[in-house]
Amino acid sequence: MREAAQEPEWKAQLKKEQPADYRIEGEVENVQCLAASGDQSKIPERYIRPEIQVDPVLNCEEDGELPVIDMSRLLHIQHSQEEVMKLGLACQEWGFFQLMNHGVSEEVIERMKCKIQGFFQLPLEEKKTYVQKPGSVEGYGQAFVLSEDQKLDWGDMYLLVTQPPFSRNLEFWATNPPTFRPVLDSTHWSWRGSKAFC
Fold this sequence. Notes:
Layout: H1 9-17, H2 31-37, H3 50-54, E1 68-70, H4 71-74, H5 80-93, E2 98-100, H6 106-120, H7 124-127, E3 139-141, E4 157-159, H8 180-193
Parallel strand pairs: 1-2
Antiparallel strand pairs: 3-4
């Protein structure tokens, strides 16, 4: 008999760092529906962020280039320290980055993008089948909603744990579009076959 898989260390750490109820009960307005309505008079107060108009993300005098991290340099003994520093700065200053030389083919990436777009084009009721549960960021919705009056980002998300495979919670993996799961799984095997998979 197979033993139950142990929770990944990063997942356990996330639970320790976040309050137990870091996702509040209740409905959070769906951003896609709000944007599609085109009626700005119906935008909930929690989505109105006047500070963003005053404080732009990029200043014209600043270097506005998206950080690029080279996976092959991260894995190379001579260049890894420099690339790790770039990665740290990208995470601290931007919160995201572009990854290159990761070993996943453009074809696999495009198939995955197509399936994700297909998921977001589903009717809201169907997407709600995969809604996040209290105390979790996995699934469809918005993460880190701490209070009823918190300002929210203009973006719905769909977060799935894909690595390692034993950590997957298939309850959140969409069955529509019908090829969503196989394409996501093929992405895993693309990573396995690349030198970037560690």
